[in-house]
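in:
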């Protein structure tokens, strides 16, 4: 996986430092290094990047102002010497905030976190479009169609997939990771220990879901989400 990145800083030495860091990380492809936000803006609107390392205090157009103009899919990493901008950075959904002088270690750590985010998103998109996953179980990879999953039960470090044909598959993966991978418009958390395939639900009651011969609990933490889903699919 390669992430396209651009660097904007009106201080040439600061921009050159970040460029040297980026060249040391194989997954980064530098598409542009700019000393002016105005110059960069036209390029970024036509050719968006995955990561933008962006200074805040710049003449003509500040980093904060530019952040509101570029495509939303670009992850912004502010680089500045001023701590007071941190809150403003999060208001424009900045991915991270690096204080100058930026060390290679902090730069690399931020890139690694961003790469994990993009990798997880790519996995999710692939799963949704292909409609199947491979599940690790007993040293094997078992192909499971999303349409065949009735529900998923969390058991400490493992999950158990209950399939519509009655089969069960155990896998060493967290409930959180399963929830991230599955389509959110179909699979919903009903309880700390359960993720349910909502399109296969037979009955929704106040504290439980009935599907086939199974009874799945609904905890208070997830009750509002389940009721909202039910309302969206209720004839009035």
């Amino acid at each position: 996986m390669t992430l396209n990145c651009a660097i904007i800083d009106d201080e040439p030495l600061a921009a050159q430092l970040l460029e040297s860091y980026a060249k040391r990380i194989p997954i980064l492809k530098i598409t542009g290094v700019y000393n002016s936000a105005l110059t960069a803006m036209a390029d970024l609107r036509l050719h968006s990047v995955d990561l933008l390392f962006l200074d805040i205090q710049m003449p003509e157009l500040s980093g904060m102002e530019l952040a509101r103009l570029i495509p939303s899919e670009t992850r912004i990493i502010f680089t500045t010497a001023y701590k007071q901008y941190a809150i403003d950075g999060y208001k424009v959904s900045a991915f991270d905030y690096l204080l100058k002088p930026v060390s290679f270690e902090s730069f690399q750590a931020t890139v690694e976190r961003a790469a994990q985010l993009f990798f997880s998103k790519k996995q999710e998109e692939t799963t949704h479009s292909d409609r199947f996953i491979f599940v690790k179980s007993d040293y094997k990879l078992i192909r499971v169609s999303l349409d065949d999953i009735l529900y998923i039960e969390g058991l400490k470090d493992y999950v158990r997939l209950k399939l519509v044909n009655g089969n069960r598959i155990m896998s060493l993966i967290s409930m959180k990771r399963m929830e991230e991978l599955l389509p959110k418009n179909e699979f919903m958390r009903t309880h700390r220990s359960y993720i349910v395939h909502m399109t296969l639900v037979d009955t929704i009651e106040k504290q439980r879901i009935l599907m086939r011969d199974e009874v799945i609990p609904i905890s208070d933490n997830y009750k509002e989400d389940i009721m909202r889903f039910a309302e969206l699919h209720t004839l009035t």
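note: The helical segments are 12-23, 37-46, 63-67, 86-91, 104-130, 175-181, 220-232.
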